[in-house]
């Protein structure tokens, strides 16, 4: 087993559910003596059984590739324990089962490895556990555990777009390999012009700064709110208003409480903050500082990113709550797969200022020590780069005319993907499925928010379309202005695309325009190098991001202070 494979595998496993669970383990480890005793006992058992075992590599029977695949397939279908308590019990049982079977001889190597692998799947710091396994599990069994992990990652990666997006949306994501890998959103049904292809709720949304200040739109769903109907929250650090108590509750649950509220973010049974002196004052100070920063900065992205981080925490904490007690607004996608979705999205290099990093990290740590790890190292930069790159502008009925003109340099202006123009939007939202829409200067769909009057997106067909057609929207306003020639309009939209999304548009219209006589020879010559765009281009990042994030996660898991029982086991 190569270390790199272990790191990749562990990165994926870490990413799929470490956060609140790790915090919970840490809390239990520090506070629960019977839990500590159990771990120590377990450590001794591992040592004893592995000391007795001197299995000879050469005589050990290794499973065939087919046996391994069949066993893994069955294992992948097993339901995983949900609550921390269930996970804890499951983990202990599987480790002890693995030991017992390993002591039965080589014929039991595969069942033993499967048990150890099951334990690993629920463990909050898998890299630590791998290190422990390497030292304590018989070599042939350890090798099978690693082979199982390898295969697990491979099958998960290959089958990812078989189950996402949900088939009921009527679209699929296709991965095109040539000339460079890209993903496109393709219709899975026939539609007529004007039909809604699918609707999608945002993962997170934010109002433009000036509208947040006026309190005329719902802070959660972005619906227009008249003053007499506004629900005004008790605790708030902006001029938030809600269109209903339902929106207020959802907002509080998803992010508002963690970022700007006072209540514990953990369920009442686990309240590690309750008895820490000064915790409430500390939290208040961290939140005030962050809110002041957001107000003076006047940008949308820092709050959008903070809300996304809060939703990740919400998803993890939700797993600790029995299903019947969870909020009813569970999103359409499996929240535990959020990291998987994010890893697959493209992004542009974005640097978050040290101030912004520190302020948000303080808010997270003050809500629950350990949460700040969520955005450690350059994960904050990457997350912001991804949200910035994929977000869509929200506007109703073609957009507004009263947005203040930004004072920033052109390269610093926040841009969202919207055919109506960022300058006409009321807010910004981030969607999982619609993130995959490519741009075309002659688009065949448009995102609309008029159907609901909220941030829920309806994707509307602009012409009759057939199953198998690629869906494309306009990221920018592609219509020529009243005084704009076709050539100028083409140059403007291509410059906007290059500036905001760092690519030279290759849509059918741009390609067709190149061969028409109305585009000047000089501009055509720019096609290859795109030096007519006046903006340096770079490939949007994706695959490197996956590798980097995984490597960092694995590194963090190895170098972190003790948060999990492996640390005790490894003593
Ligand atoms: C928001 S993502 C859309 C999903 C993306 N196709 C993927 O592979 O993940 C935007 C990226 O798609 C590519 N793209 C979208 N529309 C394009 C176009 N008209 N011409 C060239 N590249 C385009 C660009 O490389 C850009 O990095």
From TrEMBL:
One of its GO terms (cellular component) is mitochondrial outer membrane translocase complex. Residues 395-417 are annotated as: Disordered. It is a single-pass membrane protein. Transmembrane segments: none annotated. It is found in: Mitochondrion outer membrane. Residues 399-417 have a biased composition (Basic and acidic residues). Belongs to the Tom20 family. This is SET domain-containing protein. Keywords: Membrane, Mitochondrion, Mitochondrion outer membrane, Protein transport, Transmembrane, Transmembrane helix, Transport. It comes from Thelephora terrestris. Residues 169-476 form the SET domain. CDD domains: SET_SMYD (cd20071). It comes from the Eukaryota. One of its GO terms (molecular function) is mitochondrion targeting sequence binding. GO terms for biological process: intracellular protein transport; protein import into mitochondrial matrix; protein targeting; tRNA import into mitochondrion.
């Amino acid at each position: 087993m190569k270390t790199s494979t272990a790191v990749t595998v562990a990165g994926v496993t870490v990413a799929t559910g470490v956060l609140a669970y790790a915090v919970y383990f840490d809390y239990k480890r520090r506070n629960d003596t019977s839990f500590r005793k159990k771990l120590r006992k377990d450590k001794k058992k591992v040592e004893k059984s592995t000391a007795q075992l001197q299995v000879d590599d050469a005589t050990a029977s290794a499973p065939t590739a087919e046996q391994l695949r069949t066993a893994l397939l069955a294992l992948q279908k097993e339901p995983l324990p949900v609550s921390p308590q269930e996970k804890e019990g499951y983990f202990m049982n599987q480790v002890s089962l693995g030991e017992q079977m390993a002591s039965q001889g080589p014929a039991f190597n595969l069942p033993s490895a499967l048990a150890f692998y099951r334990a690993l799947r629920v463990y909050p710091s898998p890299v630590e556990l791998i290190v422990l396994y390497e030292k304590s599990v018989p070599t042939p069994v350890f090798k099978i555990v690693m082979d199982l992990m390898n295969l697990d990652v491979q099958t998960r990666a290959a089958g990812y777009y078989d189950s996402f997006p949900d088939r009921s949306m009527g679209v699929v994501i296709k991965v095109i390999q040539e000339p460079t890998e890209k993903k496109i959103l393709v219709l899975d049904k026939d539609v007529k012009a004007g039909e809604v292809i699918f609707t999608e709720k945002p993962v997170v949304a934010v109002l433009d700064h000036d509208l947040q200040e006026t309190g005329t739109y719902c802070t959660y769903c972005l619906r227009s709110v008249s003053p007499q109907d506004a629900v005004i929250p008790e605790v708030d650090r902006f001029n938030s208003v809600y269109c209903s108590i339902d929106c207020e509750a959802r907002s509080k649950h998803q992010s508002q409480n963690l970022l700007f509220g006072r209540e514990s973010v953990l369920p009442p049974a686990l309240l590690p903050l309750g008895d820490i002196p000064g915790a409430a004052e500390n939290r208040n100070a961290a939140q005030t500082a962050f809110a002041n920063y957001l107000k003076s900065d006047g940008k949308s992205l820092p709050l959008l990113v903070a809300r996304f981080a809060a939703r990740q925490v919400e998803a993890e904490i939700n797993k600790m709550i029995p299903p019947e007690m969870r909020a009813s607004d569970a999103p359409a996608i499996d929240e535990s797969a959020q990291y998987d979705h994010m890893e697959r999205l493209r992004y542009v290099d974005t640097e978050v200022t040290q101030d912004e990093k520190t302020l948000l990290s303080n808010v997270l740590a003050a809500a629950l020590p350990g949460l700040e790890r969520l955005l450690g190292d350059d994960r904050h930069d990457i997350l912001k780069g991804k949200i910035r790159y994929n977000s869509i502008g929200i506007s109703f009925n073609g957009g507004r005319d009263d947005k203040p003109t930004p004072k920033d340099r052109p390269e610093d202006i926040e841009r969202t993907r919207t055919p109506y123009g960022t300058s006409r939007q009321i807010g910004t939202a981030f969607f999982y499925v619609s993130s995959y829409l490519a741009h075309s200067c002659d688009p065949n769909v448009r995102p609309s928010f008029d159907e609901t009057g909220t941030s829920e997106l309806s994707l509307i067909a602009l012409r009759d379309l057939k199953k198998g057609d690629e869906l494309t929207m306009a990221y920018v306003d592609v219509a020529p202005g009243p005084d704009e020639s076709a050539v100028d309009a083409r140059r403007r939209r291509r410059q906007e695309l290059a500036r905001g999304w760092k690519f030279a548009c290759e849509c059918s219209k741009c390609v067709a325009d190149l061969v028409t006589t109305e585009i000047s020879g000089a501009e055509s010559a720019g096609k290859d190098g795109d030096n007519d765009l006046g903006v340096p281009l770079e490939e949007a990042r994706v695959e490197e991001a996956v590798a980097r994030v995984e490597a960092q996660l694995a590194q963090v898991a190895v170098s972190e202070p003790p948060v999990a029982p492996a640390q005790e086991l490894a003593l």
